[in-house]
Amino acid sequence: MMILVVGRPDSGKSAMAEKLAGEMSTEKKKIYLATMIPYGEEGASRVERHRALRKGKGFVTVERPLGVGNLPDREGFIEGIRAEEATVLLECVSNLCANVMFEGGKGKNLKNPEEAAEAVTKDILKLKERVKNLIVVTNEFKEEEGTDRETLEYISAVSGVNRRLKEEADRIYDVTGKNGDRYEKDSGSRWGSKITGSMLAAFSLYSRIPVPRFEWKPEGMEYILCFLPIVGAVVGLTEYGCLYLLGYLKLPLTAEVAVLSLVPLIITGGFHVDGYMDVKDALGSYRTKEEKLKIMKDPHTGAFAVIGIGMFSLVWAGALSVICGRDPGGIKMVLPFIFVLSRTGAAISSLRLKKAKDEGMLNSETGNSGRGELAVTILELVLCIVALTLADPVSAVLLALTLGVFYIYYRHMVYKEFGGVTGDTAGYYVCGSELAMLFILAASCIFRTW
């Protein structure tokens, strides 16, 4: 299988490709095929940054700026991994085109755009036939006024490769998140509708729940945030099932707390926790807005992130212990609602508030959204509060107020500290609002059993 991941620089395409590779292969059979030839400090810095981003993700790195089609070796192995069992992430087409056109960076333009595109395409398709899965990352460039001839030829070569790979790819993921030139594929998939595509994209992105094969397109993400609360509902329903089962098992309190804490992490893969830790790291730095945004992109885990998640875990475990140990008349059964409420709030804030950056995953998710999506998400919030009111009116009022106050705090914080919202701050919203609501429920338990 060959998957093409298309996006503009810093659009989140590398992260998407790594996520796909992780879903398609085990750690011992993932290969990262690096094609960049680093020039100067900036080039070396980019290489080091990408290495740091891949650290701990189970990739075997192979550096091959030219001749990727010559992999594997005669015995059919790539760095000790059998090619027919390997998932190869090739990054990226634009590097290969530059390497071919300028002969590995020696400064001599040896090939015209058509020849370069043909050579690169032939190499990639040759590699495709020799490995189990090939994930190809490519850039999307716009021709701007005043661009020199050599650059225009380079852009033409990349575009030529993209067009050809589009025809050959089994799946295409376009993560540009903006209207403009896009390479799309009409795969004839029965999952092609906007609604179904958005639902599949939401569960693929925000959870570890397996989803059927689908094609990732910007217009297919139009309603993705509308389905974020639905993912929360799945978490909540699973939590409810665990609560019901734990009522029969009569496990110790610590075991009960552990199970209920692990459920959301297992279903979501800790997707939002990562954003929470990045935000805590940035907030603890007391740097400028620009520097804080850079800290959130840094793959390393800082001290403030560790401290922040440690404090979060202690408060979470403590509040959950109070609720499970002193439950006065079914407050435990209100617990699943916080996973829906937190995600409706995160979706509304992501759609409503100003973005801190013009690129990134959040822009991909909201780039094609409009008032209709915001209205649907608000309706989901209202329905959740109505259902919660029927279950426990007091808790409904407390949680609605808590969510409202947290939204006000969040808006003030992201504008002051970052200049707007990002994907990481959305993760912070989910985790932070859940913790706040859990704390309020615990306080309510204490008050009701006083």
How do you describe this structure in short?
The chain has 450 residues and is α/β, with parallel strands linked by helices. It contains 16 helices and eight strands. The longest helix is centred in the last third of the chain and has 26 residues.
Topology, pairings included?
Elements: E1 2-7, H1 13-24, E2 30-34, H2 40-54, E3 59-63, E4 77-78, E5 81-82, E6 87-91, H3 93-101, H4 113-128, E7 133-139, H5 149-168, E8 171-174, H6 194-206, H7 228-249, H8 253-268, H9 271-285, H10 289-297, H11 303-325, H12 337-352, H13 361-366, H14 371-391, H15 393-417, H16 423-448
Parallel strand pairs: 1-7, 1-8, 2-3, 2-6, 6-7
Antiparallel strand pairs: 4-5
Helix pairs in contact: 3-4, 3-5, 4-5, 7-8, 7-12, 8-11, 9-10, 9-11, 9-16, 11-16, 12-14, 12-15, 12-16, 14-15, 15-16
Task: Explain the overall architecture.
- The protein is of the alpha/beta class.
- It has 2 domains: 2-185, 3-Layer(aba) Sandwich (Rossmann fold), CATH 3.40.50.300; 225-448, no CATH class.
- Helices cover 59% and strands 8% of the residues.
- It has 16 helices and 8 strands.
Strand order of the largest sheet: 3-2-6-7-1-8
Rg over C-alpha atoms, rounded to the nearest angstrom: 24 Å
In the predicted model, the low-confidence regions spanning at least 5 consecutive residues are: 178-192
Shape: elongated
Q: Helix- and strand-based class? A: alpha/beta
Sheet with most strands:
6 strands, parallel
| Total tally of structural domains | 2
Portion in strands: 5-15%
Number of helical elements? 16
Look at the structure and give the mean pLDDT: 83
Helix content: 55-70%
Number of strands: 8
Distance between the termini: 62 Å
N-to-C series of helices and strands = EHEHEEEEHHEHEHHHHHHHHHHH
